[in-house]
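quick q for whoever's on today - can somebody do inverse folding on this one?? i tried earlier but teh output was garbage lol. tokens:
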């Protein structure tokens, strides 16, 4: 596999180089390569440097990746549909604490899972942006709403026209997150709400699992945002940070971290590893983990952090 690498300066302060945080392989899909995460010595933002050029990186987004998940309505069993819908319902209710309805843009909408829930509520005129053509065209056909194919910065959208913009687990994937945050500010109406979720650098999971934490997800995650750095970025880009929350219990994410950690076990413990992962994915284990994972959410210590910021008027 011939990989093309690109050196990159810090996207926030422009500082080249950086202090090595750690390096590791693709633990999720097992594809080739060793990837370096560095900390900017000037501002503290974490980024891959060097990182893969897009022509190489897109091979790490195979059809098994989350962007290709089918819509809720296509799941075969009612309990599966209810389980899947609950998470998106909770995300939408969180958005509506800050904006009750209007025009909504979901950036990195994938196959339209969140858009499906927003449309079901009847409060939103919904549309999306999706760079993966197959996923975007699926959403277009299934939902019959505008889906802008391509990257967020390339989408032809009117200034100050949206009441809410969401980026669910997107910002860490993009090459230039500062430009995307700036673009979101341009597209939001004054006091419109920007909502995005990111790997929670301050989480218990990161401290416990270290280099095996699911939030690193090399090489797909190009950036990790410590909260003080993120707060400074939002303020200088014209946003008022109003809330941070952990919206979803981290059962699946904890499972990935356990998987990544156990990948390092010696071959002689392969049977024990399979048993651990099999037990973890039983209904009994899931039920037992509900209280501690709920507590992590309430304490804002779960693996994913959701950020709510209002766009301040220009000038």
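ok took a stab at it. sequence:
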């Amino acid at each position: 596999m011939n990989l093309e690498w690109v050196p990159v300066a810090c996207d926030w302060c422009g500082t080249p180089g950086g202090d090595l945080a750690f390096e590791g392989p693709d633990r999720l899909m097992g594809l080739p390569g060793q990837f370096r995460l560095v900390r900017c010595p000037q501002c503290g933002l974490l980024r891959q440097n060097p990182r893969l050029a897009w022509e190489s990186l897109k091979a790490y987004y195979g059809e098994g990746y989350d962007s290709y998940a089918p819509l809720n309505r296509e799941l075969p069993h009612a309990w599966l549909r209810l389980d899947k819908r609950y998470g998106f319902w909770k995300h939408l209710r969180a958005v509506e604490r800050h904006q009750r309805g209007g025009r909504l843009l979901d950036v990195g909408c994938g196959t339209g899972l969140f858009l499906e829930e927003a449309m079901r509520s009847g409060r939103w005129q919904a549309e999306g942006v999706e760079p993966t053509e197959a996923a975007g065209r699926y959403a277009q056909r299934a939902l019959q709403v505008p889906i802008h194919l391509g990257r967020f910065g390339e989408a032809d959208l009117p200034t100050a026209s949206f009441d809410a913009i969401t980026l669910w687990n997107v910002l860490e994937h993009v090459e230039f997150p500062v430009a995307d945050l700036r673009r979101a500010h341009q597209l939001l109406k004054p006091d419109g709400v920007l909502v995005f979720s990111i790997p929670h650098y301050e989480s218990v999971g990161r401290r416990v699992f270290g280099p095996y934490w699911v939030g690193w997800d090399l090489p797909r995650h190009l950036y990790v945002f410590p909260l003080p750095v993120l707060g400074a970025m939002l303020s200088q880009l014209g946003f008022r940070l109003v809330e941070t929350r952990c919206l979803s219990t981290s059962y699946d994410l904890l499972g990935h971290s356990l998987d990544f950690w156990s990948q390092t076990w010696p071959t002689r413990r392969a049977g024990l590893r399979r048993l651990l992962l099999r037990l973890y994915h039983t209904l009994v284990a899931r039920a037992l983990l509900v209280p501690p994972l709920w507590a992590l959410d309430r304490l804002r210590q779960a693996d994913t952090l959701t950020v709510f910021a209002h766009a301040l008027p220009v000038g």
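fwiw The chain has ten helices and 13 strands. also The chain has two domains: 5-60, 67-248+302-311. so keep that in mind when u check it
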